[in-house]
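Methods — Computational structure assignment.
A single polypeptide chain was analysed. Its primary sequence is given first, followed by the predicted tertiary structure written as structure tokens.
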Amino acid sequence: MNSIVGIAGAGGFGRTVMPLARASCLANEKLCYVEKDKISNTINGIECITEEEFLTSPLPKYFNVAISDSALRTKIVEKYVSFGATPRSITCESVKIFDDVQIGEGAILCSHTMVTSNIRIGKFFHANIYSYVEHDCIIGDFVTFAPGVKCNGNVVIDDHCYVGAGAILRDGRPEKPLRIGKNAIIGMGAVVVDDVPEGAIMVGNPARPLERGHLYGRRNVISADRGFGL
């Protein structure tokens, strides 16, 4: 083997991403799951190694992070890069990307996602199955789309936002885009029709802020990967 490719996180999303990584790997590359501690020798036929084993490997190292929690994803990226590992984007063959699209390093674009035209997306973006980003959108770093997110045109999403499964972000206008503030969470199935403040948790149709003291919170909405819990 000439190099090693690690997918950090062997939870549900990691096991969704692994077949895409496997399809893009070269014959001389070793592909593996990476977990903080050993949880299994193999998962679905792919070797699982510890974080220490990956980071201390003498082989050239490439990686991506299949963990939805953006704060945890950021920490892992910073650590792996400090050990000389290189980010690698993962894109399914069924993904459609149209004109004048720029996507930062470390993206994961899953099956049947679509990114249309005149779009700017930051680093380590996750788009789970059947999500789309329409024209003239700007998306920051470490943003996560769960399955089936519908992000319509002229939407600006700041860093570290999480958009839940089936959520809909209505289209903005060139002179007044719909804005989603930094660290905001859009709940599953929410329909966002107005700007979202920084750090807000939005639920419902139309989406409204979650009431203070509600049982749900950020840690309830986004579950950390089982092997990399904070």
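Note: The longest strand covers residues 29-35.
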